[in-house]
Design a protein that fits this description.
Low-confidence stretches: 152-159, 255-265, 439-457, 695-706
Number of strands: 15
Helix content: 55-70%
Distance between the termini: 43 Å
Strand content: 5-15%
Structural class: alpha+beta
Mean pLDDT: 79
Largest sheet: 5 strands, antiparallel
Radius of gyration: 35 Å
């Protein structure tokens, strides 16, 4: 808001006029808060972001209205008459311009997937604040002009007329070389579209946090003592790093984990250390330095493999997976075959410079005691497979039998067999189980026969009587997708976008000799990326259609809205250039910014075309009318674009947690607006002259809709 006010003071060069315009910002924000309370929208990252983006846009309508009042007051009109005629002249274009910005936000509210959940509040606050600013410009601002007896004066400065003269001369050259202008803009569009694809794609930007996770993976049969030794060695490495502020270690299996909503299953042979660095370490690049140092000293942690989760994507953090990026999935029926294919693929990808910590999930095999139930013997004793499984679980893992309460602290009381009774296969064979109720062929309960004194012994059976226990190997976990078994390939993507890393993994998977019935499928992030892109593409199409409909209603024509809409695709030049220079991949936030841009870039075109039609109806030849109208509209266009750009500018250089989310959206809006300024000032007049025809006669109002 402060930067937008600065632009107003510089552009208007009149303190009173600047204050009249800037009053729309606090009025719009306070009124938006009231609507947020009614709509039960909380103050969060995205709702406040909508207000921040809209801070510079809230004054656009007021700038145009005040400029029109000022021009009419220079014609020696009475103040009331100047206000009335000035507002009447631009009211239609101001309403249309605001509506085109608001209607593009409507599709965001009806999108599906992650994009809708993230940006619903953003669209709500931005749309409401712009509608309030429109009412402020058309109702409150004229009243304040009359109340303060201000004519919306601009300070006099010779530089303003010089800029208008230079622009008029440049526009005259463009009108004389229309083919060159259109061809150049078309070439820029094609080149920019190609440049966008070079940056790559991902769902959301990486989290710029001063944290990372170090994961210690030991052999599957490692005991808790081996895990503790590896953790001590890893913590010793962290203590020697001055960049590290604190760390928290989590190891072992939480017996209550299955009762929580956390999706990551803890493993007894793994440990995770969440490392927090000192403030500002991300900006200094300390995170990468610390990780590189730990990688080089990984051999000091004997018996464990180190993996690092750094720059974790927002999607992985939101899903709570605690894993690196999922590149793809190998799908098949036999787990042994899947494990071999996964190991081969991991070996192919390990040497890639952009893929670090390449691992697979779902193919970890451990030594097991396989219990094969004799269903006939079990049924004869009234036991089911479930009964036997529960008895084994109680014997080995235990069952919570109660709570031990001491000084307001509760501790679970877990009952299970002694270690010497559950260590070996022979010990488990002697596991006693209480028999169930047996039934005859007619499903009638059988009465126990024999000596009643031996009934208790008759009601107990040993595990070896109903099952065989064989040593073997098996997977620790089985992953399924659409009822088919699969193994996932995960990795940390360094120095490249997700789409680039996934493309390399897909190429490597294509070289595998897949047996019949086995296939490579997209990973979790790829599916979310395609869902978000599809949803946002539909939103872009709907936004363009709604914008065109609003302009068609205003102009009562299908020709002039088409001329204005042709400028929208060319704005891709700005984001394409800035993202290639900064190396930022295209993500959902960039596409959201593109949706917002559609409504913003047409506002200046509406002002220019609407006033050109007005001037041409007065009898001025078409070429002179185009130059005169564009010259008059140059100042408000520069002012409105400047306030929006400088209002969003702080978000482009924001820092702290979540700054990457704000930066992508803000850079898209600002780069697109700056690019659209050039195309609006030169391409719109050229397209207008082409669409109007060769005749230099004035346009008859009755022919506008034809």
């Amino acid at each position: 808001s402060a930067l937008a006010l600065m632009v107003l003071f510089v552009g208007l060069r009149n303190t009173r006029s600047a204050l009249l315009i800037v009053i729309s910002i606090p009025v719009s924000i306070v009124a938006t808060m009231a609507f947020m309370a009614m709509g039960k929208v909380s103050f969060n990252f995205m709702s406040i972001g909508g207000l921040a983006v809209g801070a510079g846009m809230m004054v656009d309508a007021s700038i145009v209205v005040l400029e029109s009042i000022h021009r009419h007051s220079l014609q020696k009109k009475d103040l009331l008459a100047a206000v009335e005629s000035g507002v009447a002249e631009v009211s239609a274009s101001v309403i249309s311009g605001t509506f085109t910005t608001v209607v593009v936000l409507i599709p965001i509210l009806f999108m599906t997937g992650l994009a809708q959940r993230l940006f619903r509040d953003f669209a709500f606050t931005l749309g409401v604040s712009l509608m309030i600013s429109l009412l402020t410009a058309l109702i409150l601002l004229p009243a304040l002009v009359i109340l303060t007896r201000s004519r919306g004066r601009y300070g006099e400065k010779k530089g303003s007329s010089s800029v208008q003269w230079a622009y008029a001369r440049s526009l005259g050259w463009a009108l004389d070389h229309r083919t060159v202008v259109v061809g150049t803009c078309l070439a820029v569009f094609v080149l920019s579209a190609w440049g966008v694809t070079r940056t790559g794609f991902q769902v959301l930007p990486e989290l710029d946090e001063d944290q990372f996770t170090m994961r210690l993976i030991l052999p599957p049969d490692a005991n808790i003592q081996a895990v503790e030794t590896a953790v001590d060695a890893a913590e010793a490495l962290l203590k020697n790093r001055p960049e590290v502020q604190a760390y928290v270690t989590d190891a072992g299996v939480d017996p209550k984990a299955e009762l929580t909503t956390v999706q990551t299953v803890a493993k007894p042979n793994e440990a995770r250390i969440l490392v927090t660095l000192r403030p500002g370490s991300y900006e200094r690049g300390d995170r990468e330095k610390v990780i590189a140092g730990l990688r080089s000293n990984a051999d000091r942690v004997t018996g464990a493999r180190l993996e690092f989760l750094s720059g974790q994507s927002f999607l992985s953090r939101a899903l709570g997976t605690g894993e690196s990026t999922q590149l793809l999935r190998l799908v098949g029926d036999d787990l042994t075959t899947l494990a071999k294919l996964a190991d081969e693929l991991v070996a192919r990808l390990t040497g890639d410079a952009h893929l670090k910590d390449v691992t697979s999930r779902g193919n970890v095999w451990t030594n097991q005691i396989q219990v094969i139930v004799d269903r006939y013997q079990a049924a004869a004793r009234g036991l089911s497979v479930r009964d036997i499984a529960q008895a084994l679980q109680t014997a080995v893992e235990g069952r919570i039998a109660g709570k031990f309460i001491r000084e307001e602290k509760e501790t679970d009381i877990r009952v299970r067999l002694r270690p010497e009774d559950r260590t070996s296969r022979d010990d488990l064979k002697l596991l006693p189980m209480r028999l169930g109720q047996r039934h005859d062929a007619a499903d009638q309960p059988l009465v126990a026969r024999g000596n009643p004194g031996r009934n208790e012994d008759d009601r107990v059976a040993l595990l070896e009587q109903v099952a065989t226990l064989d040593p073997g190997r098996g997977p620790r976990e089985i992953l399924r997708t659409d009822r088919r078994r699969n193994v996932t390939i995960n990795a940390n993507i360094v120095g490249a976008a997700f789409s680039n890393g996934e493309e390399k993994a897909t190429e490597a998977a294509g070289a595998l000799q897949l047996p019949p019935g086995y296939e490579v499928q997209a990973g979790r992030e790829r599916l979310e990326l395609m869902s978000s892109i599809g949803s946002l593409s539909l939103a872009l199409l709907v936004a363009a259609m709604l914008t065109y409909a609003v302009m068609a209603v205003q102009f009562e024509s299908v020709r002039w809205p088409f001329v204005i809409m042709l400028v929208a695709p060319t704005t891709i030049a700005g984001p394409a250039l800035i993202f290639n220079l900064l190396g930022i991949p295209i993500n959902v936030l960039v596409l959201i910014g593109a949706v917002v841009l559609i409504g913003l870039v047409v506002n200046n075109g509406i002002l220019m075309v609407d006033y050109t039609l007005t001037v041409e109806r007065s009898g001025l030849p078409r070429r002179d009318a185009v130059i005169e109208a564009c010259r008059v509209r140059l100042h408000p266009i520069l002012m409105s674009t400047g306030t929006t750009v400088f209002g969003v500018l702080p978000l482009c250089f924001s820092w702290g947690k979540g700054a990457a989310l704000r930066t992508s959206l803000a850079l898209t809006v600002n780069a697109g607006l700056i690019a659209s300024l050039f195309f609006t000032l030169f391409l719109v007049p050229v397209l207008y002259s082409l669409a109007a025809g060769r005749s230099g006669k004035p346009v008859d109002p009755a022919d506008i809709g034809k």
